[in-house]
Specification:
The protein is of the alpha/beta class. The chain is built from 4 helices and 7 strands; from the N terminus they run βαβαββαβαββ. The protein has a 7-stranded mixed β-sheet, with helices on both faces. 37% of the residues are buried.
């Protein structure tokens, strides 16, 4: 509901699980592609099986811890549901990696527990130079940042 997908987006879904978000993006971007990554090989198998089962041929999943095992490339869209239990340093490393992988004008959407929403706002301002809160609920917040340069 809060994700803006263009028909030709080249997207990455980080921590894709069984693929619901990445597959929905791929379906909304018929002239684009969605790379789904997860560090759990079972999730990768399920995401690929679900792409096949649903006839979505412009999405595929690979095993990777964040962007560590993803060949260098540029994306116009990145999405993730951030893990709640990791260090702020880990978030910053992750945000810088995503920033570098986005093309200028590329968008980064996150779902995060609402207790971290102020940290996300500050970190996005530091790394991306902008931040937009799209939805704040009791438990989760949806935010986005855009690569400006």
């Amino acid at each position: 509901e809060y994700l803006d997908v263009s028909s030709d987006d080249r997207a990455i879904d980080l921590g894709c699980g069984y693929g619901p978000l990445g597959l929905a993006i791929a379906k909304s971007a018929p002239a684009g592609h969605c790379l789904m990554v997860d560090k759990d090989f079972v999730a990768v198998e399920y995401a690929n099986a679900n792409a096949t089962r649903n006839g979505i041929d412009n999405a595929h999943a690979v095993l990777s811890d964040g962007l560590k095992h993803v060949p260098p490339q540029r994306f116009s869209l990145a999405v993730t549901n951030l893990p709640a239990k990791t260090s702020k340093e880990h978030y910053y490393l992750f945000f810088h990696d995503i920033h570098d992988a986005l093309e200028p004008g590329g968008r980064f959407y996150v779902v995060v527990i609402s207790g971290l929403r102020q940290f996300i706002a500050r970190a996005f301002q530091e790394v991306f130079g902008n931040h937009k809160k799209l939805k704040q609920g009791r438990q989760y917040t949806v935010a986005m940042a855009e690569r400006l340069d």
